[in-house]
Amino acid sequence: MATNPTLYETEDGRKVKFKFRTAKQFEDAFDKWMKECEATYDKNYKGRKKAPTVAGLALMCGFECRESLLKWERKDIWGRAIKRAKLQIEAWLEEAALVGKVYAAPAIFNQKNNYGYNDTQYIEQKDTTPLNSEDEKIFNDFIARIENGYFKPKAKPIKGVVSASPKK
Fold it and tell me: Mean pLDDT of all residues in the chain?
């Protein structure tokens, strides 16, 4: 007996039903929802703007939270369709931020939290300049001094301070 692909069990044991029976139903509903969201950004639209978001997609699917959608994204039958929907949302928000339809800061926040973007810069620096013979001699002498304990601090008594160790 095949399991119902539209049911899954939550961490607390409840059965939750996905709103769509097939990936095609999901894709059709998503396309309609996406068009509704895009229509609110038409310059003649007078109501509340509705940007497509991952949380909005989760609500459109009937989930209680975004994490439930992300769990469904890992399932074989729904993974491709949900990933594609998320990619369409990502592309729309990226384009909307670039042309000024939406503010850049919320779009950046969304990219970081839903799509793995980050602001970290990685700088790789390699010095491939070979050492000349004099530099190599100085370097090798320095390494030898480190290995022989040349740079270890030598304890000198401080004038006026009595040592706590007993005298022999």
Answer: 80
Helices (H) and strands (E) in the chain, counts: 6, 2
**Exposed, middle or buried, 161 (CB in 10 Å: 0-12/13-18/19+)?**
exposed
- Which residues have C-beta within 8 Å of that of residue 54, sequence separation ≥ 6? 66, 69, 86, 89, 110, 114
> What residue type is 33 in one-letter code?
W
Beta bridge partners of 9: 15
Structural tokens at position 96: 């909307």
Chain center to CA of 23: 27
- Alpha-carbon span 82 to 19, nearest angstrom: 13
User: DSSP readout, 72-88?
Assistant: HHTSHHHHHHHHHHHHH
What pLDDT does 16 receive? 60
Q: Give the DSSP per-residue string, 131-145.
A: PPHHHHHHHHHHHHH
Determine the CATH number of domain 7-115.
1.10.132.80
Q: Between 36 and 163, whose confidence is greater? A: 36
What's the pTM? 0.59
